[in-house]
Amino acid sequence: MTEQTGPWFETWFDSDYYHLLYSNRDQAEAETFIKNLLEYLKPEPGCRVLDLACGKGRHSLVLANAGLNVLGTDLSPNSIDMAKALENDHLHFKTGDMREPQGEGEFELVFNLFTSFGYFEKEEENLKTLQSISISLKRKGRLVIDFMNAEKALANLLPYQEIERGNILFHISKNLADKVISKKIQFSDRGQDFQFEERVQALTRSDFESYFHKTGFQVLALFGNYRLEAFDPEKSERMIFVVQKAV
After folding, report:
1. Terminal alpha carbon distance of the chain
2. What domains can be seen in the chain, in order of their start residue?
3. Is residue 93 classed as helix, strand or coil in its secondary structure?
4. Do the beta carbons of residue 2 and residue 195 sit within 8 Å?
5. Distance between CA 161 and CA 83 in Å, rounded?
6. Are 241 and 144 in contact (CB under 8 A)?
7. What is the tens place of the pLDDT at every residue in 13-26?
8. Which of 19-33, 110-124, 144-158, 211-225 has the lowest mean pLDDT?
9. Tens digit of pLDDT for each residue in 53-108?
10. Of 110, 95, 130, nearest to 51 (Cα)?
11. What are the residues whose beta carbons fall under 8 Å from the beta carbon of 68, sequence distance 6 or more?
12. DSSP 120
């Protein structure tokens, strides 16, 4: 069996199978979400924004089409190679680790979307990520973090499910240990067995609020879904924070 080595997010996110498993992601939903965010944020036309952990760039493209100058960064070279096909005068991509600054005082807005946070083993790395974002932002710049509502996710955790994509059947097992949701992904392709794992910290509202306080961000708003309705800890699918760099 082929298993991932090194940090899970470096190998799994760079795998073609990752993109296959999540090929059902809704572009229309992404476009509606960005439209709603921009109506709330009201950025200046042409302002500089960062899509942090951009994947193949589906959100980045919508931001650029809305008249913003966008840089998308992701740790996965494979994802960035695919995203580069979307590049134009207002949209560029490069590989980058979210734990490191992607510029210095360069961006008016940073977007971190679709639960692209909480991957690391140590809490210090979450704080380092936010500190690096702060460095990348201009004074009074804003950050949007779109994360799962861990409280609801845990209440509805499916221990096992099967998902078929093309001719591949993915066997997915989930559990919670030490406040980390672990997802084991097993499948066979062309006579070879594969196993990957996703590990995401089950971060709560209070966890994020503590992180923001420690890294100098002020919470401006908290929404519970892509329609930007109020957050409900029991019912909301998402925790969408809008925070501002204090100085």
Report:
1. 51
2. 26-148+204-245 (3.40.50.150)
3. strand
4. yes
5. 30
6. yes
7. 888 898 899 887 76
8. 19-33
9. 999 998 999 999 999 999 999 999 999 999 999 999 999 999 999 999 999 999 99
10. 110
11. 43, 45, 46, 47, 48, 49, 90, 109
12. S
The dihedral built from the CA positions of residue 11, 12, 18 and 21, taken in this order, carries a sign that is: positive
What are the residue ranges of helices labelled H in 84-191? 123-136, 150-155
Q: Are 119 and 9 in contact (CB under 8 A)?
A: yes
Q: What is the pLDDT of residue 44?
A: 95
Name the more confident of 160 and 15. Answer: 160
CA distances from 97 to 103, 141, 228 (A): 12, 20, 28
The token duo for 64 is 């650029």
Q: What residue type is 211 in one-letter code? A: Y
Rounded to whole angstroms, the Cα distance separating 221 from 243 reads 7
CA atoms of 118 and 245, how far apart (whole Å): 20
- pLDDT tens sequence across 173-184: 999 998 999 999
Q: With 70 as the cut, is the pLDDT of residue 6 above it?
A: no
